[in-house]
Design brief:
The protein is of the alpha+beta class. It has one domain: paralog of FGE (formylglycine-generating enzyme) (Alpha-Beta Complex). It is built from 3 helices and 11 strands; from the N terminus they run βββββααβαβββββ. A 5-stranded antiparallel beta sheet has the order 1-2-5-11-6. A 4-stranded mixed beta sheet has the order 9-8-7-10. The longest helix has 15 residues. The protein starts with a strand and ends with a strand.
Length: 242
């Protein structure tokens, strides 16, 4: 684990995610599988660090005070208010600015995860092809998704996965670095962000949210939105190369 002090008692905890290979995407014949999550393919991931929780509002406010690089980061934009709640209404460009400020401050390269890194981390190094890190289904005691809480919940409320990561299913959608692509034809096999071709105006989101169904919270579920959108369902987490 790496612990970074952001000032005023606010810390950013980064957990070590070991290297490994996994099958990314949906199995053919999976009853709720998506065509855009095919073909299933092997990806080899290098080790990295990932933030233990989605970026919280307290962490956002701390980084928002650092020198601006390309854009302002307003501290009063959140739909749900609370220092230990995930930062919401965050555009992809806002998340990029957050990473750039943090990188400049620490002289380390913080960034958004690739879609492959995110799915690998979400699965928690499980050999099983079950759709969730906890098994075949989610319940209200395992994650925050539609029909239970009707808002974001504080990070750390639910159990972590095998890597120690919290809220990989539900709470807020999380931005990835990748462009939107219709499927995995031609996707990288080395875990890098897929930023060749595709629709660069739309970026990938993963994990589902408090207002979306259980299906949308699957480890393999793919979603994308315009890079500029700010929505109460959307947040992010960051990674750091090991």
């Amino acid at each position: 684990m790496k612990i970074l002090s952001l000032g005023n008692g606010v810390i950013l905890e980064m957990l070590y995610i070991p290297c490994g290979s996994f099958l990314m995407g949906t199995e053919i014949g999976e009853e709720v599988g998506q065509q855009d999550a095919l073909p299933q393919h092997t990806v080899t991931i290098k080790s990295f660090f990932m933030s233990k929780y989605p970026i919280t509002q307290a962490q956002w406010k701390a980084v928002a005070q650092l020198p601006q690089i390309t854009r302002n980061l307003p501290v009063d934009r959140f739909y749900f208010q609370g220092d230990n709640l995930p930062a919401d209404r965050v555009s992809w460009y806002d998340a990029e600015e957050f990473c750039q400020r943090l990188s400049l401050q620490t002289w380390r390269k913080y960034r958004l995860p690739s879609e492959a890194e995110w799915e690998y981390a979400c699965r928690g190094n499980k050999v099983s092809r079950e759709p969730f890190t906890f098994g075949r289904y989610l319940t209200s005691s395992l994650a925050n998704f539609a029909e239970f809480y009707n808002r974001t919940t504080e990070v750390g409320k639910f159990s972590p996965n095998a890597f120690g990561l919290y809220d990989m299913h539900g709470n807020v959608w999380e931005w990835c670095a990748d462009h939107e692509h219709n499927d995995y034809q031609g996707a990288p096999s080395d875990g890098s962000a897929w930023i060749e071709e595709g629709n660069h105006e739309y970026r990938v989101l993963r994990g589902g949210s408090w207002g979306y169904s259980m299906i949308c919270c699957r480890s393999d579920f793919r979603y994308s939105e315009m890079s500029t959108i700010t929505d109460k369902h959307i947040g992010f987490r960051v990674v750091l190369e090991a």
